[in-house]
Backbone:
């Protein structure tokens, strides 16, 4: 892995630095390392470009799957021209904290579509994620989603309360939550997260950029505007 990363950095440095560095190309790894040590100012740009290149490759691998929602699991404008994808878990305090940013983005942009990917990685979160997708099948996903985050950490009691607040048909919701389409969606989200290299929640995809963590309103806004939010 180290050698692969170093090779990638070498390729980048010759791509960035131009003809002035071609004289190093035959001098071997030791001389190239020495040049890098002597010119450390180029390393941040190289690392940033490498991260961007890797993100683009991962996004290309998942294609449109990541922005294609489970039917109904969308906030904001379902037909919006800009898309923010959020991988989330109801047991994640950072996911809960980021909700104010998501709602602020929705309020500021009528063309924003927020695709929610339920990714229950915390203990006790799967029941809530399943019920959320069941709510989506009844056209009541936003109401459940909001009530679930407002109700505190996921438990049988908070899931039931959120379902009641959202006005779900509970018998139907319980059947859907245990059904194959919901199970398939959770498996799909896990695979998408792994392919994209995510290590936790919240994680985001915005206009070709990958972001991890509660990055804040400004970074999400910049990414949606096509600006580098790194």
Residues:
């Amino acid at each position: 892995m180290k050698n692969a990363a170093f090779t990638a950095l070498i390729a980048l440095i010759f791509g960035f630095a131009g003809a002035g560095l071609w004289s190093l190309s035959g001098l071997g790894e030791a001389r190239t390392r020495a040049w890098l040590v002597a010119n450390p100012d180029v390393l941040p740009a190289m690392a940033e470009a490498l991260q961007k290149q890797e993100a683009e490759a991962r996004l290309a691998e998942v294609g449109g799957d990541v922005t294609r929602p489970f039917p109904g699991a969308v906030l904001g404008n379902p037909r919006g021209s800009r898309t923010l994808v959020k991988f989330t878990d109801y047991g994640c305090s950072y996911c809960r904290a980021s909700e104010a940013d998501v709602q602020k983005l929705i309020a500021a942009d009528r063309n924003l579509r927020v695709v929610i990917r339920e990714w229950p990685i915390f203990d006790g979160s799967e029941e809530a994620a399943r019920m959320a997708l069941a709510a989506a099948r009844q056209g009541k996903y936003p109401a459940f989603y909001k009530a679930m985050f407002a109700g505190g950490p996921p438990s049988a009691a908070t899931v039931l309360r959120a379902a009641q607040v959202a006005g779900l048909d509970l018998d139907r919701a319980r059947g859907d939550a245990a059904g194959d389409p919901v199970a398939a969606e959770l498996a799909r989200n896990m695979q998408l997260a792994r392919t994209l290299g995510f290590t936790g929640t919240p994680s985001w995809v915005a206009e070709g950029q990958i972001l991890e963590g509660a990055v804040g309103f400004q970074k999400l806004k910049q990414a949606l505007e096509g600006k580098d939010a790194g």
